[in-house]
Amino acid sequence: MYTLIINHLTREKRFALVKNNVVEKLFIQQPKQQSAISKIYLGIVEKVLPGMNAAFVDIGEEKSGYLHRDKMASFVQAEEDGAKSVSSYAHQGERLLVQVEKDAAGTKGPRLSGIIELQGNHLIYMPRGRYVAVSKKIEDSQEREKLRELGHEMKEPEEGLIFRTSSKGTQKEMLIAELEQHRLKYKEILQTASVVRKPGCVLERNSLIDEISEEIERLEINEIIVDDSAFKVELQKKFQCSIQLYSGKENIFSAYRLEHEIEKALKRIVWLENGAYLIFDEAEALTVIDVNTGKYSGIQDLSDTILKTNEWAAVEAARQIHLRDIGGMILIDFIDMKKEKDRQHIISLLEGELRKDERRTKVIGFTPLGILQLTRKKTKPALLESLTMKCPSCEGAGRVLSPESIAFRLERELWEHKGGDYEAVFIEATQDVQRTFSGEKNVHKERMEELLGLEIIFSGSDSLKPSYEIRQYGTSADLRKKLESN
Known about the structure:
The protein is 33% helix and 28% strand. The protein is α+β, with helices and mostly antiparallel strands. Strands 4, 5, 6, 7, 8 and 13 form a 6-stranded antiparallel sheet that branches. It has a 6-stranded mixed sheet with strand order 16-17-18-19-21-20, with helices on one face. A 5-stranded mixed sheet has the order 3-2-1-14-15. Helix 11 packs across helix 12. The protein is globular and about 75 Å long. The termini are far apart.
């Protein structure tokens, strides 16, 4: 049974998935980094590249998107065998609807699909998808075949349908009604796109709600705890599970001891309970995890010590990969094992732990040098990339928390003093943190002052990295005198 703890009160939206007091997933969304996955755009083909069998599409964002021939609606509808070049299905200047499959990361733009998917409670509707599929979680073969036949009966030849797990046992009339809603929604999207002149988004999405929906669809969520009453009402309209409102003064993540898990997921070294540790080195397309015995010496022979350490490391490595949302190629340098059966045991253990992950993973095996290779589908930046930036004081050799992360941390700390007896608070902060916290024309600062009943007085800090320090609470007059004397 899982508990979902949601921090929605401040601008940085977060949730943690907890099972038996162990955090299994973290989701953090900052305003500037909201995922574009599943957003639908009107795009214009910029360049067709026969050599790559793909096209670059201007979607009105900073970077153009990448669209492979096999993901083009015209290719799917043609039902070709794949012999024709991309030039047969797209041309420069063509206007088309596309959906983001993978966020832009580093120097790469977003990856796109021309096969639009509209997600509902029981169905995923593809206006130009052509095929019918059933969730693999519906294991009953008769039920799967029944749904597949129903799908072909319901859809038009050019349409596609995917039956979600929740469709099992759902009445036919409800499924048909949902399909009609999807069709109306798609007509609205086409109408919007028809009047748009420039490339741009034609259908936004609430990625937080979508992520929560996926967790509820995927797992047995026992309860949801949220700190925002308005968001609680929104969740109750959509989901049937138990939802509780947290009303304590302390930030909900601090109250449930989750802040430590975020800090741990950003550290290079992760200690295991037995004294061994893992070292994470994350790059854009490759992550290396090094396993060390550390203080653990075992109680029997050396091979027993090595195997036990590698077992603990495999379990924690899988958990950290999920928590940190690491994607791409991953290399784990386990302590060298001489016996082939020990290596296969570690592979089986790791595969078992990775099955808990909703993202597609593939364990390839050990290299001749004894390094285990695996891949994990990457759709958005990892936690480290999202929450940190290149350190200006070390020219990128290390990382520090970004001004946004520090400003939102200050926001949460001030929330804990809501309704206090003080008139004002005196804070030393770097200019970048002050700007982020205050917002354009101090709109966020003034909003916080009104909500907290507390005047916020800033003083500059000479720190080389984004930081703040709450120096004093008191009367407005006394703290303004303090500001003038600095």
